[in-house]
Write a structure and sequence with these properties.
Helix content is 42%, strand content 13%. The protein is an alpha/beta fold.
């Protein structure tokens, strides 16, 4: 069974039982460089419009050589766009956000719509051109190379809510949602329209799935009351998913949401999502048993391995026990692809990365 067949069966997209639970992982720049050098494989970087997504869609050649069953592709910055660092170390990305490198992730420190109040303010903002063919050259290359052997995911993370957040600022957006400010729904609409066009370009080029990414939770709770989510957020995703299914009825729809979002999972299913990622562990309502028992009939699951504490600081024995548990519980009856809950960062040693992959392969058949 090749990787593509394994993922299709594991995620219940086609009937049958996979030979083992499939594996996926993302690597930060330092790990890509380390393993690229170790394996003698060039590090191919695809600069995404939003900087941190770059590490989701880069280094596919290295990751599949290490054991990933998945190839992740996404739109790049347009040809001719150059990020130029300013004297204070910041730069403007293609969205016009002011960016600065943080200790691990890239931080937005200036928001192009920080003063937005009205629909006219949103109308005056111009998104990058989603149809620029130069954005999809790497997508075309990777699909041509891997389509027959690997499951290919088109990544449009930072999709609607998170994109709006990074355009205006989280505190402002949440307050203005509660106040029902005039600009909020038009902004969500424009974000949805932009990302629908990006997703359509990826679908046109042959991806198997579209991976949305918007965080609706914190470590302990939801970011907003459920009624606000249902009224102001949910409709845009539902409409967008309907549009993408019209383009390709077989496209698999995946949502990434960090945080304690279990209370929203019935709504997330109603939006049209089929796979839930990253099943962030160690937050309320997200134990493997709670997720599988409560929502296993709604979704296939992807993720569930803690990269905040377990991967960088746990023992090999603790990692082994957690992988066995996730295989037993989330993998029972199928419907699971194992992965860290986020990008593996440089606080995880290369040896631990290799140990994670080794253990996933060792125990992937025990479910």
């Amino acid at each position: 069974m090749n990787s593509r067949e394994r993922v299709l069966k594991a995620l219940k997209i086609v009937p049958g039982t996979p030979d083992r639970v499939p594996i996926q992982f993302d690597l930060c720049k330092q790990h890509l460089e380390y393993f690229g050098n170790k394996l003698g494989i060039p590090v191919n970087i695809t600069d995404n419009l939003y900087e941190d997504v770059t590490w989701r869609i880069s280094g596919n050649e290295i990751r599949v050589a290490m054991g990933s069953d998945v190839v992740v592709v996404g739109a790049s910055v347009a040809d001719g766009f150059k990020r130029e660092k300013r004297s204070d170390g910041t730069w403007l990305n293609e969205y016009g956000m002011v960016m600065r490198q943080g200790p691990i992730y890239v931080d937005v420190v200036g928001y192009p719509l920080a003063e937005a109040q009205t629909k006219a303010d949103v109308d005056a903002y111009h998104f990058p051109d989603p149809a620029d063919p130069s954005r999809y050259k790497e997508v075309e290359r990777l699909v041509a190379e891997y389509k027959d052997r690997y499951f290919i995911i088109g990544d449009i993370e930072v999709t609607i809510f998170s994109l709006a957040q990074q355009l205006v600022g989280l505190e402002k957006l949440l307050i203005d949602m509660m106040l029902e400010a005039e600009y909020v729904k038009p902004l969500f609409q424009k974000c949805a329209e932009f990302q629908t066009q990006v997703a359509a370009e990826l679908i046109k080029r042959g991806v198997d799935a579209i991976w949305y990414g918007d965080d609706f939770g914190t470590q302990n709770s939801l970011l907003m009351p459920p009624d606000i989510f249902k009224d102001q957020v949910k409709p845009w995703y539902k409409n967008m998913n309907l549009e993408l299914k019209k383009l390709n009825p077989d496209i698999v729809l995946i949502l990434h949401s960090d945080g304690a979002v279990a209370p929203l999972l019935p709504d997330i299913k109603d939006m049209g999502f089929e796979v839930f990622n990253p099943v962030q562990p160690d937050v309320p309502g997200h134990s493997a048993k709670e997720i599988k028992d409560g929502f296993g009939d709604m979704f296939a699951f992807w993720g569930a391995i803690d990269q905040q504490k377990l991967l960088p600081f746990g023992t090999d024995e603790e990692l082994e026990a957690d992988i066995i548990d996730k295989m037993h519980v989330l993998g029972a009856g199928g419907g699971y692809m194992i992965a860290p809950a986020h990008i593996i960062q440089s606080d995880v040693t290369p040896e631990r990365v290799e140990k994670f992959i080794e253990l996933c392969k060792k125990y992937g058949t025990i479910y």
